[in-house]
Write a structure and sequence with these properties.
The structure holds two protein chains of two kinds.
Chain A: H1 5-8, H2 13-35, H3 38-63, E1 68-69, E2 72-73, H4 74-91, H5 98-105, H6 108-112, H7 118-148, H8 159-183, H9 192-205, H10 217-226, H11 234-241, H12 246-277
Antiparallel strand pairs in A: 1-2
Helix pairs in contact in A: 2-7, 3-4, 3-7, 4-7, 4-11, 5-8, 7-8, 8-11, 8-12, 11-12
Chain B: E1 4-18, E2 24-39, E3 44-48, H1 55-62, E4 72-75, H2 84-88, E5 91-95, H3 107-117, H4 122-136, H5 151-163, E6 169-173, H6 181-197, E7 201-205, H7 209-215, E8 218-223, E9 226-231, H8 233-239, E10 245-250, E11 265-269, E12 274-278, H9 284-292, E13 297-303, H10 307-321, E14 326-328
Helix pairs in contact in B: 4-5
The chains are: A mainly alpha, B alpha/beta.
Bound molecules: adenosine-5'-triphosphate (ATP) and magnesium ion.
Adenosine-5'-triphosphate sits between chains B (13, 15, 29, 31, 49, 51-57) and A (279, 281, 283).
Chain lengths: 283, 330
């Protein structure tokens, strides 16, 4: 029998590496799982491209004759739009209902029967999914932007690594939000309500429909620190187009890191609450 | 210490039922109604009961995916819900009704992923997989995505997946449901082999009693969430008076039904050409000798007591005796 003290002992080095290895294996399988849906990826790219043109010309109209709006020039707007179209798929902002479906059908039982915390294993799968999306869904719109438009390319050396970190955090934050929205299925028969609310809020407040710079400064700040939405798209894209000075951008990514930690903790809390009352259906 | 201990294990579900046009009433359904049971290491336990008896509910509580209402359960000394992740390392579970494999991945990749999830050393994992491949004939569909597998193929995959980490306890909820004869035999043979090794404890739920006959020495029958029988299959037969039968084929029908001491006549079939006697205190030889004096015997057959028969009788008896399990809540 494993003694109780074994569980409170500090994790040994090998324990950590084994956890990382498990995480990596689940992420790789997530990559492979999503890679089986090639047609879906193609359809997604086409849709994203069409809406990319739409958004670009609307933003351009907003910029008007001056060619500047809310601190973005034309080239920055082009980058904002075309990289943003790709990022939508990388963070998988909409359309993920796997967890809610599995809760509803009772398939969640299979996840609970594994020796890995469900939040951890779903996160790992999502990281793998995001990796596949980065190859299949991010690259095409970026290429379109590069070849067809004058896009803004970062000038500072630190921008690109910071952007990558910012995107990784955005993936984690978006995962956390989606997990929480899906987890309402533990309490509700029908999760369409929370899903619609999420779709609406994330679209408007993440900087997708318009860059949040269009809003008054105090409101943008309120959204940024008070909600996780700007961390999904606005912050990574601002980092890429170098809208703020480097130290400020570092701070923004720090805000993202804070949101990632808060959301993951919240996911675990909600999951624990849910398990106490969970009724696995069927059988 | 017992591998599995249940004391006063209960589960009540609260359901809302329509009562009138708008009103909805809360009702409590007692799915498991106070089960006390101990299972020792290496035991092969058949856990059966009629539909809705509470078998799956018990298994869900023992595997930690369902919180018991009151009552306690320990599996491998752990509390299933509170210590679920640790318990998961030590048990294997197959719910025949649903898949635990990854729908989009080939079986081979699922198994490889499980190796990492359960942190099994590669050598151990490989040895177990090789054994399962041999015994369950996995090779021809190892590279097929799970969603394309037939039910029987998938079930063999599920069993393998449940065993790759070398669990101490195996919970199987209807693992042979929907399988053809050959697949069933493969699964049974595989489990029998596992049982012979003697270090894995098995809890098996099934409606195919041949599974039980073939595999389990101990049989627990539950109904309305309560244990109604706990013992060997032989004990069940003797308790419910199932007897061996002698079926005699006669050349010609007898004018009146024969009376043999210790072997009451059960049925007369085929226009009196076939007589069926139950063996109570008489031996087969005595029945044959008694009949030979009365008629010309063409053929004689001895039928072992039928498990389906005795279990059906048990289910019917408990259904008549069993009270309603649905009670209105205040
Ligand atoms: N989620 C639930 N909500 C309400 N009642 C439930 C729920 N799950 C099971 N029950 C009830 O509990 C009882 C036991 O169900 P359970 O699934 O354990 O039966 P079982 O013995 O596995 O039956 P079967 O042989 O049909 O699989 C049934 O009366 C069922 O209606
Ligand atoms: Mg069942």
């Amino acid at each position: 029998m494993g003694s109780v003290t074994a569980t409170v002992a500090p994790p040994t080095n090998s324990n950590v590496t084994r956890s990382i290895r498990t995480f990596g294996a689940i992420a790789r399988s997530g990559f492979r799982r999503y890679a089986t849906y090639r047609q879906a990826a193609v359809a997604g790219v086409v849709t994203n491209t069409v809406f990319g043109f739409l958004r670009y010309y609307i933003f351009l109209a907003a910029a008007g004759a001056a060619g500047r709006v809310a601190g973005y020039d034309r080239e920055q707007l082009a980058t904002f739009v075309w990289v943003g179209q790709g990022l939508l798929a990388v963070i998988a902002i909409w359309g993920w209902t796997e967890l809610a479906d599995r809760i509803r059908t009772g398939e969640i039982a299979a996840d609970l029967l594994r020796p890995v915390h469900p939040v951890t294993s779903y996160l790992a799968t999502d990281v793998g999914r995001a990796g596949y999306a980065a190859l299949s869904r991010l690259v095409p719109p970026v290429l379109i932007g590069l070849f067809l438009f004058d896009v803004y390319l970062p000038h500072r050396g630190a921008t690109l690594p910071l952007f990558v970190l910012s995107v990784v955090l955005a993936v984690v934050i978006c995962f956390g939000c989606r997990y929480l929205v899906n987890a309402t299925a533990y309490w509700l028969q029908d999760v369409r309500g929370p899903l619609i609310l999420w779709t609406l809020c994330s679209g408007v407040l993440a900087g997708l429909y318009f860059p949040l710079g269009f809003l008054p400064g105090w409101l943008e700040a309120l959204l940024r620190y008070g909600t996780p939405f700007p961390s999904l798209l606005q912050i990574p894209l601002d980092v890429l187009v170098e809208r703020q000075p480097a130290p400020v951008q570092l701070g923004l990514v720090g805000v993202q890191a804070g949101w990632a930690v808060v959301l993951l903790a919240l996911c675990r809390l909600v999951q624990r609450r849910a398990e106490l009352r969970l009724v696995v259906q069927g059988g | 210490m017992s591998v599995i201990e249940m004391s006063g294990l209960r589960k009540e579900f609260t359901v809302r039922v329509k009562a009138g046009r708008l009103r909805r009433e809360k009702r409590t359904v007692t799915a498991v109604d106070g089960i006390d049971l101990r299972v020792e290491r290496g035991e092969m336990l058949g856990y059966i009961g009629p539909n809705g008896a509470g078998k799956s509910t018990t298994l869900k509580m023992l595997t930690g995916v369902l919180m018991p209402s009151p009552g306690e359960a320990r599996v491998c000394g752990l509390r299933p819900v509170a210590e679920r992740t640790r318990l998961a390392m030590r048990i294997g579970v197959v719910f025949g009704q649903r898949s635990q494999l990854w729908w989009d991945l080939p079986l081979r990749d699922s198994f490889e992923l499980l190796r990492h999830v359960y942190r099994v050393p590669a050598g151990e994992h490989g040895a177990r997989l090789a054994r399962c491949r041999g015994l369950l004939d996995l090779d021809e569909f190892l590279d097929t995505p799970v969603r394309q597998l037939s039910l029987g193929q998938r079930m063999r995959g599920e069993l393998t997946a449940a065993l790759l980490h070398g669990p101490e306890v195996l919970f199987l909820d209807e693992p042979t449901i929907g399988l053809d004869v050959v697949s069933k035999q493969a699964v049974r043979g595989f489990l029998a082999e596992l049982g012979r090794a003697g270090d894995t404890t098995l809890v098996l739920t099934t409606h195919d009693l041949a599974d039980i006959e073939r595999l389990c020495h101990r049989l627990v029958v539950i109904d309305h969430g309560r244990v109604v029988h706990d013992g060997s299959i032989a004990a069940l037969h003797s308790r419910y008076g199932s007897r061996r039968m002698v079926v005699a084929e006669l050349d010609a029908a007898l004018p009146r039904p024969p009376e043999l001491p210790g072997a009451p006549l059960q049925r007369v079939e085929a226009d009196g050409h076939r007589l069926v006697f139950a063996l109570e205190s008489a031996t087969v030889a005595e029945v044959v000798a008694g009949l030979a004096g009365l008629a010309t015997l063409r053929d004689i057959a001895i039928v072992e007591p039928d498990i389906e028969e005795v279990v059906a009788r048990l289910y019917r008896m408990t259904a008549e005796a069993g009270g309603a399990t649905v009670t209105g809540a205040p």
